[in-house]
Backbone:
């Protein structure tokens, strides 16, 4: 049995509620490395063009902006 046939056999046994994980994984491993490189280069260019880089806020301030309480248990 080939690897692809084995993968298809295993796929048949994956429950529907876990299928999202399988799809996400398959999309990740089939993604084009060139697309990843282009995306990362875009992030770097965006960061380098940002005039406000280096201006940080505290985690407490970010939680307040996001409407999240850091201290609820």
Residues:
């Amino acid at each position: 049995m080939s690897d692809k046939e084995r993968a298809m056999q295993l796929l048949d046994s994956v429950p529907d509620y876990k299928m999202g994980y399988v799809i996400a994984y398959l999309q990740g491993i089939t993604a084009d490395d060139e697309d990843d490189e282009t995306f990362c280069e875009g992030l770097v260019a965006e960061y380098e063009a940002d005039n406000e880089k280096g201006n940080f806020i505290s985690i407490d301030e970010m939680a307040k902006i996001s409407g999240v309480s850091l201290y609820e248990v």
User: Anything to note?
Assistant: The two ends are 51 Å apart (CA to CA).
